[in-house]
Structures are given as C-alpha cells and as structure tokens.
Amino acid sequence: MMSTSNNGDRDQIDHKTCRYICDAVGERLQQNMRPEPALSSRLQHLMDELRRRENDQN
C-alpha cells in the first residue's frame, strides 16, 4: 500500500483513494501530452537506412 509522510507521521492511503489519484493523473497526462508528429517520408527513409546499417554491423 502506498504511503506518504505528513509532518513526520506516516499516513496510509487506502486503495480506493490511491486508484482515484492514479486515474486522475493518467487522465491529466492524456489531456496534456501531444502525440509525436509523424516523420517526413525523407526522414523516415533515413531512419530506416540507419537501422538497417546498424543491424548489418551487428
């Protein structure tokens, strides 16, 4: 179980409260995080070529 300190005392957070906090943080992150933009076709080609060359060296 998750715990936090409050003025040096340890208070237990019950499972329901912990789940609520985790869900709220997750929702906030989903709202604030933007998806990564897609690479241009030229840059994607170069990244693929780099991976291919790295794999050939191993």
Structural class: alpha+beta
Helix content: 55-70%
SSE pattern, N- to C-terminal: EEHH
Distance between the termini: 44 Å
Biggest beta-sheet profile = 2 strands, antiparallel
- The radius of gyration over CA amounts to 22 Å
Percent range for β-strand residues: 5-15%
Would you write up a description of this structure?
Helix content is 60%, strand content 14%. By secondary structure, the protein is an alpha+beta fold. Strands 1-2 form a two-stranded antiparallel ribbon. The protein has helices at residues 15-32, 41-57, and strands at residues 3-6, 9-12. It has one domain (3-57). The protein is elongated and about 55 Å long. The chain is built from 2 helices and 2 strands, in the order ββαα.
At a glance:
This protein is an alpha+beta fold. Helices cover 60% and strands 14% of the residues. It has 2 helices and 2 strands, in the order ββαα.
Topology:
Elements: E1 3-6, E2 9-12, H1 15-32, H2 41-57
Antiparallel strand pairs: 1-2
Task: Provide keyphrases for this structure.
60% helix; alpha+beta; 58 residues; 2 helices
